[in-house]
Amino acid sequence: MPDELNLAPHRPALRRWPALRRWPALPCLAALPCLAALVFAACADGHHDDADHHHIPPEVEAAARYEVIPLALGNADYGPANWVASPNYVTANRGKGQIKKVIVHTVQGSYAGCISWFKNPSSNVSAHFVVSKNGEVTQMVKEKDIGWHVGSENGYTVGIEHEGYVSDPAYVTPAMRKASAELTCYLLKKYDLPADRVSVMGHVELPKQSHTDPGKYWPWDAYMADIKACMGGTTPPTCSGSCDDGNPCTTDGCVNGACSNAPANGIVCWDGDACTAGEKCSNGKCVGGSIVKDCDDNNACTSDGCSAGNCQHSPNSAGCDDGNACTSGDKCAGGKCVPGAGKSCNDGNPCTSDSCSGGTCKHTPLGSGCDDGDPCTVGDGCDTVSGGCKAGTAKDCDDGDACTVGDACNPNNGACVKGGPKACDDGNACTIGDGCHPTTGACLAGVAKDCAADGDDCTTGSCSAGACQKAKDGAPCDDGNDCSQAESCQGGACVAISMMACEDGNPCTHDSCSGGACQHLVHSQFCDDGNGCTVGDVCSAGACQGAPLVCDDGDPCTMDAPCKLGTCNPGTPLCDDGNDCSKDACQGGSCSHTEVATGPCEDDDACTVADRCQQGTCVAGAQRTCTDGDACTTDRCLSDSGCVHDPKPGCVAADGGAADGLSGGDGVAGGGASGLAPSAPAAGCSASPARSAGGVAVGGLGEANAGWLLAGAMVALWCRRRRTSRAAQC
Predict the structure, then answer these.
(1) CATH of domain 39-263
(2) 708, 714, 715, 720 alpha-carbon torsion, rounded to 10°
(3) Any residues with CB less than 8 A from the CB of 610 and at least 6 apart, and which?
(4) Residue ranges of the domains in the chain?
(5) Is the peptide bond preceding residue 214 cis, with omega within 30 degrees of 0?
(6) In this predicted model, what pLDDT tens digit does every residue of 660-712 receive, in sequence order?
(7) pLDDT digits over 592-619, tens only?
(8) To the nearest 5 percent, what fractions of the chain are helix, strand and coil?
């Protein structure tokens, strides 16, 4: 690899980051953060099986445009290639004799999208190499291992994906064809394969395939001619033996004839515990294992666990269900569910035969004699239609006494009970206790009704027509209710005028009065908490509570705002990239940014004026003139604040006054602080990337720090872009 980083393949990304174009060439080691910041676009061609995997999800293609891809330079088998590991492969140790063909694919998408898709474990697809239209090569699976690109033919092949679409007549660029031919030449030399169309084939040419790539526009004649011309060259240096160190958490490879074993973070591995899964590599070690082996035997009567990779099932005594709905209280014993007590279906009817089936009681009618359970009936019998016990005739309990009525049978034991005295009325409603003559049964007058001893505050002591005379309305009285606070006679009855106030204002209590004391019983009914931003309000533990109202304006191009005062506010737009020289738009939840060819803009440099857009980039205009015409000031311009006029010590102006640095102009309308100088930088934002890292100039920057300073400059550039909208938050 050359000492100086070649940024030519990344010019499309540099157009989106103007600050990088103005940065001097950096040494290779210092440029690693720079490469990590480049943003690629999107792709996919999956080959674990032969399903139609030339179509990747649109969201993967869209997200890849902004994905930062960390490149592990120097870890690839092929020296000119970047290294980005895919988790989708089978570990093997293939070499000469096992690798027999190089397979040419077309991605049906973009270069960076393909890398993103192959990095996704759920895609179940990969290829050994990916080649871009500008000739950049990334290796994602070691040559010795088996990639997932041609289904049943994976074991003896090496796959090369190419950016583009088979329907595009111009998708094969000269740079891509040259880079691919050099890569194929390297593979043929390394594995002693001839440069012919038997060793180099298209995906469509293999057996058991349903794909058509690389398609009719792949230039086979020119491609094979490039390969054969390259075969006359020299073979890149390789290692004498396998570079596999046996550690699944290192990336093993051959770099310029020497083995390299770098830590491979984030790939799936195994920690040796057969009861766990989900381990991933971290700093060269296999850690994690958060996924525990499922040992559930679906038996509620065993406690399940895992030991040394083997499932253990220990009997327990938990409750269970034996599957019979006619038993209850089933319980585990010896690893099995033992039935509990049978369901009681006795309906107490002697005229039915009782049983249980499927958890439901059944009662079949009988036709025999029965007892209806009433000892006061005789001659009971079963009703064959309804199945019920039909009562017989009533038992005769007349005692023959003329002064008793209501002689009856005791329903508890069937014994006859003498009736009560015969009710007699002498015709005078103001007498009580009229009696029966024991011999004749005639009614005899009772004693006069006492209206003074009835305890009723609203009656007088006299009787008329059998009724005690009522007191005057409004007379005080006592209705006997402790919850009444004031009572008076109304129409001869004691009526409560007011009751004890027990309303506590809490919608989650039932308020009442009992025995002169207020009762507040908590309930769990629906209520209203008075907050318009909650729904489903319900009482809980005496308090009214609701769930937050979820606000969704239905627009995927906005970030939904929270509910305020019961109203869902409009969402905040998501697609503003802060670049004056791009038109931002959103469709279907995806942002697009179209370059503005020409027009005014602000490059955030207070020392330039009339800045203009050129192909999506804000280009500085003319330099601001800061001469104020005062011989006693030193005039200069600061990029972050504009013109500055420093007084010269001891200088006396021609008119005899001391220099104050405020006269004259700055070469633009308004001059000074009221001219075109930009607003002060937002708090925390650096106005000049070149002053970071303690003020060390770029020209003296060391290799170890230059890359990180460049990353900081890019963040500062973003902040300054946002400041133009007066909404910087850095």
Answers:
(1) 3.40.80.10
(2) 150
(3) 600, 621, 622
(4) 39-263, 270-314, 509-574, 576-621, 624-679
(5) yes
(6) 444 344 444 333 333 333 333 433 333 333 333 333 333 344 443 444 445 44
(7) 888 888 889 988 889 999 899 988 899 9
(8) 15, 30, 55
